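Researcher: Please translate sequence to structure tokens.
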Amino acid sequence: MAEYLFGFAFLAYAAAAIAYAGDARRPGPAGRVATWGVRLGWVLHTGLLADQAARADGFPWTSWAGSLSLFVWLVVSVYLVWGCRSRYRLLGLAVLPVAAVLLAVARLGGGTGAGRRSGYSTGFLIVHVGLLSFAFAAFTLSAALSALYLWQERRLKSHRPAVLLGRTPSLLTLDALTGRTIAVALPALTAGIVAGFIRLGSDGGTVDALMAVTLGAWAVYGSYLVLHYEAGWHGRRAAYLALAGFALVAVARLGLQVSHFS
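Model: Translation complete:
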């Protein structure tokens, strides 16, 4: 069952990515196909995760491949909150190809299995890994929003608005959505970090490079919220700061794969 669910979910994501590309060249039915492809892929992917949870003895995604599959599902879940609206289809063109590729990588690593038993409790893994994965997924979407902001601003300043700009959210909307996404993600990251430090203290461990990078990302995004909502940082400066935070998130996510799930 898991193999079939993975296969169909991957095909739906890949078809959505291709349809988004077609819609970018010629708006029309391809955009609607992409929207339903994302939705169908997410339903099938949810079924895959549910099947893994039913078969697992403990937390189902303790392997690096399982964790990567969960991360992809979370990215698509956050995107689906508002991403299927017609004005966000260019964002889908950035998200869905990456989702399809990462899901394929997860499958090659055995991501359809039920995972293995871990030395950590299931409750701790749900809080720590679950919240960190959600936060990283939300930060990924905020980076895509920031990149779309910078692309749109550049085209407007070069007086080349073209037809695509009429099909994207306004700069004000992109800036506001980036801030809201980070405002939701940062508390989840904070709770995940706190859970990790509590466990670290009970085990008598020390802070490693991955934890330092994660704390660096927390500091950057915390600074973003303060500067954005208190100091009036908007536009290009805020977008670049969000992308700087995502660079640390990307390093932390890769480090999570290598150090925690190797």
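Researcher: Any highlights?
Model: The chain has two domains: 1-117, 119-262.
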